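Much of our argument rests on the idea that a fold can be written as discrete symbols. This step matters because it turns folding into a mapping between discrete strings. The record that follows shows the chain in one-letter code together with its fold in token form.
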Amino acid sequence: MSALSAIRSVVDYDSEVSKISQFLEKFVDAGAKKMDAETDTELEPAEPRHTYMGALQLVADRAADAVAIRLDDVRAFEVQSSGAHPAFAFASSLAFRIEHNAKCYVELFSRAIDALMPEAATSAMQDADADVLDVIFQARRDRDRRDREALAAGAGSEQGGGTGAAESFPAVLTRRYTVRFVARVAAPVLAVRDVGARQIGQLVTVRGIVTRVSDVRPAMVVAAYLCDACGCEVFQEVKTRQFTPLAQCQSARCAANRSRGKLHRQTRGSRFLRFQEVKVQEMTDQVPMGDIPRTLTVHCYEGAVRRLNPGDVAHIAGVFLPQPYTGFRALRAGLLADTLVEAHDVRPLKRRYDQLARELTPEL
């Protein structure tokens, strides 16, 4: 039996969330300054062009479904706030830690965004196309309000279980956005064969040609169940390609009644993300003489889907991750795992004919 060892992490993630919150609150991207062509002097300060709090307001108003975090902005804010020289050690900066542990920092940014998310200008329930989860959350809030009023009146809550509030919801269920990292301009662009074990967990940028694109399908991230004994809602967060559905209710009410309620999966209460798988092959000029071109699997979610077509040459920035085999392939592979890139920023290098047609204007 192999020996086990526990080592305390040197990273204070609570402190990292605090730094991220300061960046999201205080960063302002100043626009280009207006200059006088004759005197070459600044006429007036430029108006702010981009703030992340403005981006969060768009997410709250359902006008956007993604928050793009540019690592160049993180780097510039850190240099400006610390007063250090722009050439100070990049290896000790927040942008470096994000770049080399991108998957973890997606969750840290999400925690900071959840705390800073502003109120929506209009209620989502007033929209005719309100999401089913919005209806669930509103019904839960109304029930909790009634329970609190009943407790305040001394009558108690007849329904019980109303103290669960929103804490019983997985965080990924209540988020109406995805966090995407945009790589630094100075970050190297790698060939497919240059991405290896050293880049596991890092944000990498790969250049290649798209050879195959799958259909856009829903990928489950939260499975919702309803108990037939106590009527409680049970949510299961799905983090792997395969998962074991829950069969028995694990709520406090069933435990108190010593009953084993049967769970029934509710599709409308579950959350799905748009998912597309893309195969990227290295370019001809990147293949050494006599070698076979290598391919890389790219997983696209939400806003990154339908951005690429077969034959497109693109720069794909994403997190390089291992992917364990499943089924019988897992028995044969043992400790080996496949690899993939979870796309964050997709930039086609060539415009298609339909895009060119929209840009052309008829000459009068």
Summary: The chain has a mean pLDDT of 80. The first strand starts at residue 28 and ends at 30. The CA atoms of residues 24 and 142 lie 31 Å apart. The chain has ten helices and 14 strands.
